[in-house]
Design a protein that fits this description.
7-stranded antiparallel sheet; 6-stranded antiparallel sheet; alpha+beta; Rieske Iron-sulfur Protein; Naphthalene 1,2-dioxygenase Alpha Subunit, Chain A, domain 1; 607 residues
Length: 607
């Protein structure tokens, strides 16, 4: 976890059947998409009587058992309301639900850091499991497509087999509505095989390559220009025109303050007013350290974690000088804004005279923590911690984290940025087990967080505010877990992740660029796949360490051999000392390589 406390930083195959006897049309009509509905505690019993949807869960309770942790606190200890987060509005106090207009697609989502976008390869990314591909065209302009080649996509797909004996048509639908008399079985089976092999694979453009600024699908070589139009089909006759339908869906992208943002809606034009802008990052002299981290838990869990300063002294004890378990203390929070777009307020230590930290959450997934102070020269200085938490899908997220300020200690200028990135990886690894387990519990229990969380006023105010905000807007998301309401995903995560995940993981061009080999399939529990492959600085440093390790090993062997061959004692000593220094360099390189490829392991100690 990264702390919000500011730290220092179609032409189909032309193969014909050998003996076509019948003419069939095999159609696959997509089923209407089910939409999940938010489940409200007071409406649940009525919903259960009228629906058997898997997303419905019993959120009501008997008269004798408290329905939530909050109810328990009211029933058993009347003083608990003094330490627990209570209702934040009169509507909530009366049990009424506030609902705001919201459509998750009509938002800007942070895709990547501009500096880390590959210059010579496409990059596959997701937003709520919607797959997109980002790349730079011949002019270096950023382009974003749906990560799916149109060669393998059709709204209604069919296979036709001409009947040479009887001039008639038969139809077989996947829903079983049309009849089939059992004749021409071979023709039907052949059609099904043709259908399966030529239509089912939806080739990913992110596994393609860039040729003269065009994105090429490596399955059949179709090429697309920046507006999504197909400009080359190698299998098309020379005098034939490319079908107009051979185009890719495009998404609008913008680069702002070093971050690439994507507008996910196809129904409306991009709303530039919603594009985030961060004042501190535009101040003169402001410098920041930025990194991308892919994480194995939901973005809502990630945001909660980043809003929780109280865990830092315990979970990150002595990760740096600002985190010590003996400094754990009650915190004070003051909410100053609540809107349909988020919330904001001040926070600080419980014994502080002022609240120095200002936190703001803004839809859909932007969290910032700012601090100001006057230095010894009387100049106001600004520090910011910015967390851009893209929802990549169920049980996974991608974070762009940026720490910066208008001033920094001189020693920071001498420390390479990759070192700060690796320290950041350690912070995430310290919380990863807790957060992954929490994600699993939410998916299994299928209840609002009110049933599970015990939110303290002195530590969890922001977490409660975030889940209550999701009560307002969660109906406009693919799924959500709010304080009082939930709406479950249409498909379970295992359907979204398998079976393609493992195969794709060993493919020739996954994850960002270059194969990883079958021995090292991508694993988001490993920091190499969580961060290094997404960072040009860290991946470059890792390559350098490997080169130096090999070179120093060879030099050490050569020096040792010379020491054996020479006769002079002084020469032997000098050569052996040099070989020892080279071996020390090999050890150092091995340690640095391990830092980029090995997770933090918590060592417990007795107090």
């Amino acid at each position: 976890m990264a702390s919000p406390i500011l730290k220092f930083p179609y032409l189909s195959h032309t193969t014909s059947l050998s003996n076509p006897l019948a003419f069939y049309t095999l159609s696959l009509t997509p089923k209407p998409r089910k939409t999940s509905r938010p489940i409200h505690v007071k409406q649940q019993r009525q919903q259960q009587r009228s629906s058997k949807c898997h997303a419905v869960t019993d959120l009501t309770s008997s008269n004798t058992v408290p329905s939530s942790i909050e109810d328990q606190s009211r029933g058993e200890d009347s003083d608990d309301h003094l330490v627990l987060v209570g209702p934040s509005s009169e509507e909530e106090r009366r049990g009424e639900r506030e609902v705001a207009d919201y459509d998750w697609t009509e938002e800007w989502y942070p895709l990547y850091l501009t500096k880390d976008v590959p210059d010579d390869a496409p990059l596959g990314l997701t937003v709520f499991d919607k797959q997109v591909v980002l790349y730079k065209d011949g002019q270096g302009e950023l382009r974003c497509f749906e990560d799916r080649c149109p060669h393998s996509v059709a709204c209604i797909m069919s296979v036709e087999i001409e009947n040479a004996n009887a001039n008639k048509q038969k139809s077989l639908n996947f829903d079983g509505s049309s009849a089939f008399d059992g004749k021409d079985l071979f023709a039907l089976c052949s059609a099904l095989m043709h259908y399966s092999y030529s239509k089912w694979p939806l080739a990913k453009l992110s596994e393609g390559q860039l040729i003269d600024g065009r994105l090429e699908c490596l399955y059949h070589g179709w090429q697309f220009e920046g507006e999504g139009n197909c400009v080359k089909i190698p299998q098309l006759p020379a005098n034939a025109k490319i079908p107009q339908s051979a185009c890719v869906r495009t998404y609008e992208v913008r680069e702002s303050q070093g971050v690439v943002w994507v507008w996910m809606s196809s129904k409306s034009q991009p709303n530039i007013n919603k594009l985030p802008w961060f004042e501190n990052f535009a101040r003169p002299g402001f410098k920041d350290s930025s990194a991308v981290h892919e994480l194995p838990y939901d973005h809502s869990i990630l945001l909660e974690n980043l809003m929780d300063p109280a865990h830092i002294p315990i979970s990150h004890d002595r990760t740096d000088l600002s985190a010590k378990r003996e400094n754990a203390q009650p915190l004070r929070f003051e909410v100053t804004e609540r809107t349909d777009r988020g919330f904001a307020g001040w926070w600080g230590g419980g014994d502080a005279q002022t609240l120095p930290n200002f936190l703001r959450f803004e839809a859909p997934c932007v969290l910032s923590n700012n601090r100001e102070f006057i230095d010894e020269k009387g100049v106001k200085q600004y520090f910011s911690g910015l967390f851009l938490c893209r929802p990549t899908g169920q049980g996974k997220s991608m974070l762009i984290v940026r720490f910066g300020g208008t001033t920094r200690p001189q020693i920071a200028n001498w420390i390479p940025e990759w070192f700060f990135h690796q320290r950041g990886c350690t912070v995430f690894e310290q919380d990863m087990g807790f957060l992954s387990s929490q994600n699993e519990v939410l998916m299994k229990e299928k209840v609002p967080t009110k049933k599970l969380y015990l939110n303290l006023r002195s530590s969890d105010t922001w977490v409660a505010e975030y889940r209550k905000w999701m009560d307002k807007v969660g109906h406009g998301m693919p799924y959500h877990f709010g304080h009082n309401t939930i709406s479950l995903p249409e498909l379970p995560a295992v359907v979204e992740h398998a079976p393609a995940g493992l195969v794709a993981g060993a493919s020739s061009s996954f994850p960002a660029k270059g194969g990883t080999g079958t021995m090292h399939a991508p694993n988001l529990a490993n920091r190499y796949f969580r961060h290094v492959i997404h960072c040009k600085g860290c991946s470059g440093a890792l390559k350098s360490f490997n080169v130096w390790k090999k070179a120093l090993s060879a030099i050490s062997l050569a020096l040792t051999a010379f020491a054996i061959l020479v006769s002079g004692r002084q020469w032997k000593a000098a050569l052996l000392v040099s070989a020892s220094l080279c071996l020390a360099g090999v050890y150092t390189c091995s340690t640095l390589i391990k830092m980029s490829t090995t997770n933090f392991i918590r060592t417990h100690r007795r107090f």
